[in-house]
């Protein structure tokens, strides 16, 4: 009798799973309406949100609104009972800066400026400095050859000599300024002066950045580094062009020159807390596997003149698309047709500053990345590419990542599109020679670098109102926004309900 009962019960479970697999997604996709998208976007991209800078009161208001909607839709909190995944930002505003050479005293932010990562304080005196050309160190070149710089002041040119090439991507390149400074530190330098035609602005240097816990524990070991310009060099009888001409394209012998140099620095650290917002539609028989649907809810804020950068397309359009997809899947679950895998709907912040929120999540995942089948990321799907001179401008979407990391991506995407939405899928940004390097410029990349297959949906708007106060709600094409969001929904439906996790059988080219 018990055996018979178990067989009947298991049969019902099997039927339930089969019903979920074959459930019709169309009624739920249709709940992603132009009217609702416009309603939410009018709030997200409103004057009250102030451009949603990271951090800002407007960003927090947007986070609160998203959280309220997730609760109303019936989503579960995505982080141990909370809809928030908070992380800390900090800025290191200098309260005291001094650079003196001999009798000459130089002006902060006019003649010199600090690098963004500095020790809490420093007071250093040198009787000489070592000039090491461009300060490049890699497997083929060492601008420090045959010189000991331990405890010394090192000076080098910003940038790279003409003709220098590296196969490493920008942040790993030996000419990337943080790597130059790191190499100077490895060589034992006590401080660095970077010869540059332009100084970073005080506004840029006074920006928040994610708090690096490892850096905090080692912050006193950082070395002071300052940019200096022609105003400093001319007091020594040089110009930048003369120095570049002297160095040329070759590795030069490092030069030691006598000079009385006094450097003083003191910081005033300020912190702020921001959050990713995460809601979950819990799966059924595969609830311990996950699909992530993401967009960034931040934008670039308000400028010094008070102009609000509304960010209706960038990325208000993606934000409201994710919200409506979350509601659609919650309705499917309530109707007994919910996904087999759990779906995390995550709106991240700090994308405009450097993919901060997604980087924080990928480095501190709440759910195992090895059990995350894919990430579907949306960044701008509400406009028409002004550079797209073709007849399909009202029925296309750019998709990035279709031929990377997993051979499952393209068949799933195209299968759902051919069956339901019939958009023109344009893969042009997956060209390895794409000058914009779009694949690396939105939040999906922080999943991709961890090996999670991704698809990125995008309208191509790098012109017109991009990062301008004129990126407003009235410019959005809501019928096209709804259709693109429905494509992502259908793709998510397939990925969340198929038997196996997506294969990870392709290499990601860095």
TrEMBL record:
Domain of life of the source: Bacteria
Organism for this UniProt entry: Mycovorax composti
Domain PA: start-end pairs: 140-229
Domain named Peptidase M28: residues: 276-490
Signal peptide: none
Classification via Gene3D superfamilies: 3.50.30.30, Zn peptidases (3.40.630.10)
One Pfam family this sequence matches: Peptidase_M28
Entry-linked InterPro entries: M28_fam, PA_dom_sf, PA_domain, Peptidase_M28
Protein name as annotated: M28 family peptidase
């Amino acid at each position: 009798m018990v055996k018979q009962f178990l067989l009947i019960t298991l049969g019902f479970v099997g039927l339930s799973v089969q019903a979920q697999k074959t459930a019709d997604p169309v009624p739920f996709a249709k709940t992603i309406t132009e009217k609702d998208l416009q309603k939410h976007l009018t709030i997200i991209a409103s004057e009250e949100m102030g451009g949603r800078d990271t951090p800002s009161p407007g960003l927090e208001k947007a986070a609160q609104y998203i959280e309220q909607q997730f609760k109303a839709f019936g989503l579960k909190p995505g982080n141990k009972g909370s809809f928030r995944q908070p992380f800390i930002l900090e800025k290191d505003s200098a309260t005291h800066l001094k650079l003196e050479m001999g009798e000459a005293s130089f002006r902060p932010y006019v003649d010199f400026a600090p690098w963004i990562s500095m020790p809490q304080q420093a007071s250093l005196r040198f009787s000489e400095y070592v000039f090491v050309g461009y300060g490049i160190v890699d497997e083929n070149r060492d601008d420090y050859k045959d010189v000991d710089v331990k405890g010394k002041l090192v000076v080098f040119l910003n940038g790279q000599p003409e003709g220098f090439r590296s196969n490493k991507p920008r942040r790993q390149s030996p000419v990337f300024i943080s790597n130059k400074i790191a190499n100077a530190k490895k060589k034992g330098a006590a401080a660095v002066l970077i010869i540059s035609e332009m100084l970073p602005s005080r506004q840029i240097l006074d920006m928040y950045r994610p708090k690096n816990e490892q850096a905090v524990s080692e912050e006193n070991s950082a070395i002071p580094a300052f940019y200096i310009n022609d105003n400093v060099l001319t007091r020594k009888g040089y110009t930048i062009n003369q120095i570049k001409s002297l160095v040329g394209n070759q590795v030069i012998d490092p030069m030691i020159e006598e000079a009385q140099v006094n450097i003083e620095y003191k910081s005033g650290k300020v912190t702020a807390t921001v959050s990713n917002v995460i809601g979950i539609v819990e799966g059924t028989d595969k609830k311990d596997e996950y699909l992530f649907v993401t967009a960034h809810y931040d934008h670039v804020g308000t400028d010094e003149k008070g102009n609000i950068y509304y960010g209706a397309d960038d990325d208000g359009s993606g934000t409201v698309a994710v919200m409506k997809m979350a509601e659609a899947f919650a309705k499917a679950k309530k109707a007994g047709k919910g996904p087999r895998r759990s779906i995390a709907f995550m709106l991240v912040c700090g994308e405009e500053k450097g993919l901060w929120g997604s980087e924080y999540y990928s480095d501190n995942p709440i759910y195992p990345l090895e059990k995350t089948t894919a990430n579907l990321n949306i960044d701008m799907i509400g406009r028409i590419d002004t550079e797209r001179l073709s007849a399909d401008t009202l029925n296309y979407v750019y998709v990035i990542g279709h031929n990377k990391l997993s051979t499952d991506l393209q068949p799933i995407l195209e299968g759902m599109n051919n069956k339901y939405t019939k958009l023109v899928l344009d893969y042009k940004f997956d060209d390895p020679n794409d000058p914009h390097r779009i694949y690396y410029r939105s939040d999906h990349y922080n999943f991709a670098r961890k090996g999670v297959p991704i698809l990125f949906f995008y309208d191509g708007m790098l012109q017109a109102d991009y990062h301008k106060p004129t990126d407003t709600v009235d410019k959005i094409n809501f019928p096209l926004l709804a259709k693109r969001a429905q494509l992502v929904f259908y793709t998510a439906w397939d990925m969340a309900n198929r038997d196996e996790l997506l294969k990870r059988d392709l290499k990601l080219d860095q």
